[in-house]
Amino acid sequence: MPQRELSTTAYLTLGLLASRDWSAYQLAEQLGRGVEQLWPRADRQRYNILKRLLAAGLVTSRAEQSGKRGRTVYAITDAGREELATWLATDTRPAALEFEGMVRVLVSDQGSIGDLRRTLETMREQASTARALFARYAMHISETGGTFPERRHLFALSNTFMIGHYDHIIQWTTWALEQTESWPDAATPAVTHDQQVLDMLAAGRQAWAESVPVVS
């Protein structure tokens, strides 16, 4: 079956429904459990995505009574499972990073050194909070199997990546705060701290040297 033009959020929704039927509220709840750090746009698109999946015949919907209120529950169809499997067999797109803190770092010469260092401190605090969140997820999955015990091996892979990701941010911001401690402002170190800048770029220069093939 040829692959349809669906968004990553649509495939993520199909992946959640592949395990069990969910209401829109339950899907939103699952998307908020660690998924928003990987794919922040998922929660913003969830209602339109369900309408599109319904129209494409990839999911079905049914009305159920939940206490005094009714709800719509969604289920994946055979066509939906086939579409999901087709997508999984294709090459993934390159990783893309949406990181406002790093954008602020890039243009920090237009602000004060205090602004730059506050940005770095905020980035570190946010990373520490997110790391603790995934640490709790790891404990929960270890002790209970989690919401998807049949996928706990895959969640273990993802959880380890996310912990390492936030570890890197924590380590980098700590290093960056040390580097900027002696800077009088956020603009002049390009000239006044030339050797320090070269030292900071050493890792990148080494990575470049290692990536260039040796010609014999």
Could you describe the 3D structure shown?
This protein is mainly alpha-helical. It folds into 2 domains: 81 residues, Arc Repressor Mutant, subunit A (Orthogonal Bundle), CATH 1.10.10; 88 residues. Helices cover 63% and strands 8% of the residues. The protein is built from 11 helices and 3 strands, in the order H-E-H-H-H-E-E-H-H-H-H-H-H-H. A 3-stranded antiparallel sheet has the order 1-3-2. Strand 2 and strand 3 form a beta hairpin. Helix 2 packs antiparallel against helix 4. The longest helix is centred in the middle third of the chain and has 32 residues. The mean pLDDT is 90.
Indicate the topology.
Layout: H1 8-17, E1 22-23, H2 24-31, H3 35-38, H4 41-55, E2 59-66, E3 69-76, H5 78-88, H6 100-106, H7 113-144, H8 152-180, H9 189-192, H10 194-200, H11 202-211
Antiparallel strand pairs: 1-3, 2-3
Helix pairs in contact: 1-4, 2-4, 7-8
Structural class, judged by helices and strands? mainly alpha
Shape: elongated
- Strands ordered across the widest β-sheet: 1-3-2
Measured as a percent range, the helix fraction is: 55-70%
Whole-angstrom Rg: 23 Å
Whole-number average pLDDT? 90
User: How many domain modules?
Assistant: 2
H/E element string? Answer: HEHHHEEHHHHHHH
> Are there runs of 5+ residues with pLDDT below 50, and where?
none
Q: Give a short account of the largest sheet.
A: 3 strands, antiparallel
